[in-house]
From TrEMBL:
Residues 83-110 form a coiled coil. Residues 46-176 form the Multidrug resistance protein MdtA-like barrel-sandwich hybrid domain. This is Multidrug resistance protein MdtA-like barrel-sandwich hybrid domain-containing protein. One of its GO terms (cellular component) is efflux pump complex. It comes from Silvanigrella aquatica. The keyword Transmembrane applies. NCBIfam families: RND_mfp (TIGR01730). One of its GO terms (molecular function) is efflux transmembrane transporter activity. InterPro entries: MdtA-like_BSH (IPR058625), RND_pump_MFP (IPR006143). Keywords: Coiled coil, Membrane, Transmembrane, Transmembrane helix.
């Protein structure tokens, strides 16, 4: 009896080992796997297009925002004054232009019937062209002033999340100096860096399984969307010079972009930029 129990236990252990070995062989034969992968999305730094002291801050870190939502407001009194002044100048020039245009047309008619000299006509035409150029210049100033007034309100470029912000009321905002870290909430993808020896097994359109380290409750599915045409080392600040005498062969990696299948809003919220993932891509059937 003890011999039979021992035999059964050994058989069971052998069967379990066989299943495990078979599983790993299957994975290595049919799939390429890497843990050198991260979730990415459209992330950017938002900088104001107008300078001035910040008067209102409508956001906090981690807040969801909609496209066009006002994030911060900059003191716009100078821009309001500039716009009013430009509009006043435009009204004045339009009035002058009407008078000069009337005079020009009258002189033109007189010139055609010989009642005005060439000099009078040329002078009227020059005055008309000059006032028209001035008017167009001030019209451009009005448009520029309107833009600057609009720029005093920094708005969200799309639906997204405020990743970080350094904006404070009373702070001097400068054109081009980033104040807000912003992450678009409409799209996520994975950039997986596969070894150069594995790239031949991957084709665009192949299916992939994505396991996120921070989300143990579920796996995600995706599709290979694109592959880089160069290794990561190609674009480093100091690319390796293999023409020197000392050469150490290092396995290069190629970035592969994997697009998630349809994600819910809740999924996108969980899939934060920079999270580490494990990617498993089915090998191309051509190489099986």
């Amino acid at each position: 009896m003890p011999f039979s129990v021992k035999k059964i236990i050994l058989s069971l252990i052998g069967f379990i080992v066989f299943i495990i070995v078979t599983y790993f062989i299957y994975q290595n034969v049919f799939y390429v796997t890497t843990d050198n992968a991260q979730i990415e999305g459209h992330a950017l730094l938002i900088s104001p297009k107008a300078s001035g002291f910040i008067t209102k801050v409508h956001i906090i870190q981690g807040q969801k925002v909609k496209k066009g939502q006002i994030l911060i407001e900059i003191d716009d009194r100078d821009y309001v004054y500039s716009l009013k002044q430009s509009k006043a100048n435009l009204i004045s020039l339009n009035a002058k232009m009407r008078d000069i245009e009337i005079n020009y047309k009258r002189t033109e008619k007189l010139y055609k019937i010989g009642a005005a000299t060439q000099q009078q006509y040329d002078s009227a035409l020059a005055n008309f062209n000059d006032i028209r150029a001035q008017t167009e210049s001030v019209q451009a100033q009005v448009l520029q002033a309107e833009l600057m007034l609009e720029y005093a309100k920094v708005k969200a470029p799309s639906n997204g999340v405020i990743a970080k912000t350094s904006a404070e009321i009373g702070q001097l905002a400068n054109i081009g100096v980033p104040l807000i870290g912003f992450v678009d909430s409409d799209e996520r993808w994975v950039t997986a860096n596969f070894k150069e020896t594995e790239i031949e097994d991957i084709r665009i359109g192949e299916r992939a399984q994505i396991d996120v380290d921070a989300i143990s409750s579920k796996s995600f599915l995706g599709t290979v969307f694109s592959m880089s045409s160069a290794t990561g080392a190609t674009f480093t600040l100091l690319p390796p010079d293999n023409a020197t005498g000392n050469f150490t062969k290092v396995v290069q990696r190629v970035a592969v972009r994997i697009k998630f299948d349809k994600l819910s809003d809740q999924d996108i919220e969980l899939l934060k930029n920079g999270l580490s993932v494990i990617v498993k891509v089915r090998k191309s059937r051509e190489n099986l």
